[in-house]
Amino acid sequence: MNLTTAADATATLRPVWRDVLSTSYSALENAVAGIGDEQWKLPTPCSEWDVTQVIQHAAGDQLAFAEALGVGVGPAYNPFDPSGAIDGSATALVRDAIEQTAAAWATVTDDTESVPTPLPHGALATPVAAVMCALDAAVHAWDIAIATGQPSPLTDELAGYLLTAARTAHPAPGSGVEAEIVEPLRQWGAYAAVVDAESGDTTVAALLRYLGRDPRA
Fold this sequence. Notes:
Layout: H1 6-13, H2 17-33, H3 51-68, H4 90-106, E1 114-115, E2 124-125, H5 126-147, H6 156-166, E3 169-171, E4 178-180, H7 182-188, H8 203-210
Antiparallel strand pairs: 1-2, 3-4
Helix pairs in contact: 1-5, 2-4, 2-5, 3-4, 3-5, 5-6, 6-8
């Protein structure tokens, strides 16, 4: 297990977290904008959800982060039980969610040490919390892009930052035992089991495998 200490993760991510968020938000918006008329019900790497459901989930998660930071009222539905039917435009749904969350992060000053999150971990170091928020947007952008035949929005540089946040050591909710941030979420069902690494894996492939996805999907 490649645990990254909270101090090391914070130091690595502090100079870049705002850029990582912006890049991840653009990836999600662009992926949704690139969906074809007949592609909304296609299966995705999130095996239980189609394209529309992944969009609902991704938007809901962003709204939950915004609410935790004091902006908006959060999603009006359970992001982990998406209906598969969007009232209105998917593009508008995602844009509204991103605008709220971006506005929320804009209230966070560079010297803010920690912020509340909707994750079961509660408050996290600001750079780590921000990049976990970005991870949600970026990886679901990848899910949508792959499902609809678009190019991957992930780069090795972005994936490296996302992995740093995901593997940050933090006391697990309930037990208090130090574990990678993603692991309690995986046990809860938010991520599938790690997919075995292969020789020649890029950083993007390592991130996807770590989050339970096959990078060759």
